Amino acid sequence: MDVKSLIAQMTLEEKASLLSGKDFWTTKAIDRLGIPAMMMTDGPHGLRKQSGASDNLGIMDSIPATCFPSAAGLAGSWDRSLIGRVGEAIGVECQKENVSIILGPGANIKRSPLCGRNFEYFSEDPFLSGELASAHINGVQNKGVGTSLKHFAANNQETRRLTINAKVEERTLREIYLASFERAVKQGRPDTVMCSYNRVNGTYASENPWLLTEVLRKEWGFEGFVVSDWGAVNNRVPGVAAGLDLEMPSSGGVTDAQIVQAVREGKLDESAVDASVERILNILFLRMATKNRNPAFSAEEHHRIAREVAAECAILLKNDNFLLPLSSGSTVAVIGEFARKPRIQGGGSSHINPTRVDDAFEELSALHDGTCTYSAGYRMDKDEVDSALLGEAVAAAHAAEIAIIFAGLPDSFESEGYDRKHLNLPQGHIALIEAVTSVQPNTVVVLSNGAPIEMPWLHKVEALVESYLGGQAWGGAMADVLTGKVNPGGKLAESFPEMLENNPSFLNFPGTRDEVVYHEGVFVGYRWYEAMHIDTLFPFGYGLSYTTFDIGHLKLDKTSMKDTEALTVTVDVRNTGEFAGKEVVQLYVADRASSVRRPVKELKGFEKVFLEPGETKRITFMLDRRAFAFWSESLSDWVVESGMFDILVGSSSEDIEAIGQVEVTSDYVEPIRLTWNTTVGDMMAHPRTKPIVEAMMAKMMGPDSPMAGLTMENDEMMKAMIAESPLRMLRMFAGPAVDWSFLEAMMDA
Ligand code: BGC
User: Fold this and answer.
1) Ligand 1 neighbourhood includes 56 CB (under 6 angstroms)
2) 693 C-alpha to center of ligand 1: Å?
3) Residues 15, 65: one domain?
4) How far is the CA of 56 from the centre of ligand 1 (A)?
5) CA distances from 577 to 320, 485, 551 (A)
6) Residue 548 and residue 613: Cα distance in Å, rounded?
7) The predicted structure's pLDDT at residue 7
8) Do 495 and 348 reside in the same domain of the chain?
9) Which residues in 286-315 are b (16+ Cβ under 10 Å) and which e?
10) Residue nearest to atom 5 of ligand 1 (CA)
11) Is any ligand 1 atom within 6 A of the Cβ of residue 192?
């Protein structure tokens, strides 16, 4: 399709008409030019195609579709190919329903555990989030359906999400919040990017030229189109100029007319309109060409995939005395209404109408070769203790050999549209865990929640499985994990703080009336807990297995390198236990010394491997320049400073099992701006000015100077005080011993 010549045939009104939706979910057609309408609908962990009335809060009905675990759950798998398969299954379901673009995945960083929408996001770490989002995008797009990477950018809370101004310094944006999108854009190449509702450093994302054009297109090479989040347009005309191509949903023609008028009045360049139309049509015709209305799949088969995926995402957080997997013949008291009415997904625009929903109690009863009883334990609709239900549960737990409590957060506790206020479980769930563990030491808790909770009861339970929001086949998947049919291999994609107050954004979330300032900077998640030496309940990357692994034999292909070279790292991982299982091997890089404060270490690689008992596999990681770099505010660029870096490989951020070192050299020298207020210390720290200041000091302490006799080398106190002195003060003290003219010349230069 020759899009450019099509555009040449369009009237200005026709072009403007293509820049906003026809209705809630489709673009406008231009019949006379053979341009069809295109449908976009929600996901991302399944298809939400509405059957009747439209809304963006998941209130109205949608057609049945397979509900996979939501992003927080999927991230627990740390498995690119698994997430790719989920993407493919969703892509196929989109094809069947004539949907050209699915609105997801979300790549926002989990800044605070309170964000109501954390269940839709992958991680607190940009590398992990970007890798998993790319895998999701590739899966969907492999099946000929487009994606919309959302919500770009700095949309890390629901409170005032439509208007809040996120104030974030550029280094923090680049290293954390944008980095997640950057990786997903470059690797995943999504058809579209969805701009967020909020403002970023004062400008709405929907009319932010720096975000939408400078960074996204010019720097990252994004070639698709940008769509607004539903209703995110604040001012349409500057939006077009900034690079927002498509406004969704329909504006009823109002903003189309504004665009036409602005062009006619010379306030908007028609070339900006043409560029947006071209980008939209390129994707539209691509997706028309990749349409496949008869994809082969069965709901049954997709349910089976959903079960496999949910089991792969489960994270075993505690398993004292090898309580799990359940021993055969045991009597098990299954407790908690979630076992029969599971919470499989979060609320809001991603809410899917599942094709069916597994019941964990039924599935467990069918799989476990022992006896299972059921008691509800709490009421789902009330945040209070129900004494009668509690009593029944305690009696059942007492009579059994093992109790399994299904607990977690009900719908009302977390959703799109609002943030959580605390990290507590409902009262009824806490009381149940307390009461059951007082009569039954062999208690397992299985959690269904979209984000971390506090666990004051943790020491009382023997085993803990974090299943997040596991999708429609969660019940079957839990039966697989609890009985050992599947060996859990998930790892936390976020830190679980001991208490809310420990989390890095605590004092600055959700901000004041109009503004939230990201004071913690790059110290998000484990980057904060490690720098501050704050213990977590469970650290980033943590998760157990029914077997054990050993990581070792770390080798680097070189011990010193230029920053422009790549480093190859290999390690061996061995299954040292008795079950076949999967380990997630994680690689972190630590900069030993830096001119800016950097995190203790940062994730730069991970691989998930399957191993039979006794088996060993070698894993290879490639580290490029970016793995060592930080964002320099003074240079507005990525910078690698020469020095030693540690390469740390382990099974979680806290369990580092193999360490290597590499010396990296780069041409980068931190710029120094010399004025009479530059301190002696700064000059001493810089390779270009160090010899000058040393020569100066030698003269100053020479026999003719008023400072004669002072010995810098031996006097630490003197050294420290002089280091803090600006040059202008030295000039005062040094007297005629020093000729300052060369310094003056340097400053001028
Ligand atoms: C959400 C988006 C969603 C859109 C359409 C918005 O409220 O933020 O994630 O894709 O609605 O439903």
Assistant:
1) yes
2) 59
3) yes
4) 5
5) 16, 16, 13
6) 9
7) 98
8) yes
9) bbeebeeeeeeeeeeebbebbbbbbbbbbb
10) 56
11) no
DSSP string, 387-451: HHHHHHHHHHHHHSSEEEEEEE--GGGSBTTB--S--PPPHHHHHHHHHHHHH-SSEEEEEE-SS
* pLDDT (0 to 100) of residue 99: 98
Residue 77 backbone dihedrals phi, psi, to 5 degrees: -75, -25
pTM of the model: 0.96
70 Cα–ligand 1 center, Å: 15
- The answer to whether residues 157 and 260 belong to one domain is yes
**Among positive and negative, which fits the CA dihedral 488, 490, 491, 496?**
negative
Q: Is the CB of 208 under 6 A from ligand 1?
A: no
553 phi-psi bin (left φ>0, alpha ψ -120 to 50, beta other)? left
Active site residue 229: yes
Q: Are residues 513 and 554 in the same domain?
A: no
Q: How much is the pLDDT for 580?
A: 98
pLDDT tens track for 581-619: 999 999 999 999 999 999 999 999 999 999 999 999 999
Q: Which tens digits make up the pLDDT trace of 350-384? A: 999 999 999 999 999 999 999 999 999 999 888 99
Best mutation site among 25, 60, 103, 120 for ligand 1 pocket (most ligand atoms within 8 Å of CB): 103
In the DSSP assignment, the letter for residue 22 is S
The pair of three-digit structure tokens given for residue 260, joined into one six-digit string? 């036409």
Cβ atoms 21, 68 nearer than 8 A: no
pLDDT at 508: 98
- pLDDT tens across 424-455, in order? 999 999 999 999 999 999 999 999 999 999 99
Query: Which atom, in ligand 1's list, is nearest to the CA of 161?
Result: 8
Statement: residue 711 has pLDDT above 80: no
User: Helix/strand/coil (H, E, C) string of 201-244?
Assistant: CCEEHHHCHHHHHHHHHHHCCCCCEEEECCCCCCCHHHHHHHCC
Q: Is the CB of 191 under 6 A from ligand 1?
A: no
The enclosing domain of 330 has a CATH number of 3.40.50.1700
More confident residue, 738 or 581: 581
Asked, as a colleague might, if the bond just before 105 is cis with ω within 30 of 0, I would say: yes
pLDDT for position 706: 61
User: Can you tell me the distance from the alpha carbon of 302 to that of 305, in angstroms, rounded to the nearest whole number?
Assistant: 5
Q: Whose CA is nearest to atom 11 of ligand 1?
A: 56
Q: Is the CB of 349 under 6 A from ligand 1?
A: yes
Q: Residue 725 pLDDT > 70, yes or no?
A: yes
Range of the domain at 562: 549-665
d(CA 557, CA 662): 10
Please choose, from the candidates 464, 170, 106, 493, the residue with its C-alpha nearest in 3D space to the C-alpha of residue 317. 464
Is 297 a member of any domain? no
Ligand 1 atom, smallest distance to 148 CA: 10
Residue 546: is its pLDDT beyond 80? yes
Is the backbone peptide bond immediately before 691 cis, with ω within 30 degrees of 0? no
Instruction: Give yes or no for residue 103 CB within 6 A of ligand 1.
Output: yes
Residues 371 and 444 in one domain: yes
48 CA closest ligand 1 atom index:
12
Q: Is 441 exposed, middle or buried (0-12, 13-18, 19+ CB in 10 A)?
A: middle
Query: Which has more pLDDT, 465 or 61?
Result: 465
Q: Is residue 334 part of a domain?
A: yes
Q: Atom 12, ligand 1: which residue's CA is nearest?
A: 56
Q: Residue 126 pLDDT more than 90?
A: yes
Q: Residue length, the chain?
A: 749
- How many independent structural domains does the chain possess? 4
pLDDT value at 199 more than 70: yes
Q: Phi, psi at residue 64, to the nearest 5°? A: -65, 140
pLDDT at 441: 98
* Same-domain check for residues 632 and 712: no
- Please say whether the beta carbons of 470 and 342 come within 8 A: yes
Find the angle CA(583)-CA(589)-CA(594) to the nearest 5 degrees: 165
In a domain, 294, yes or no: no
In a domain, 543, yes or no: no
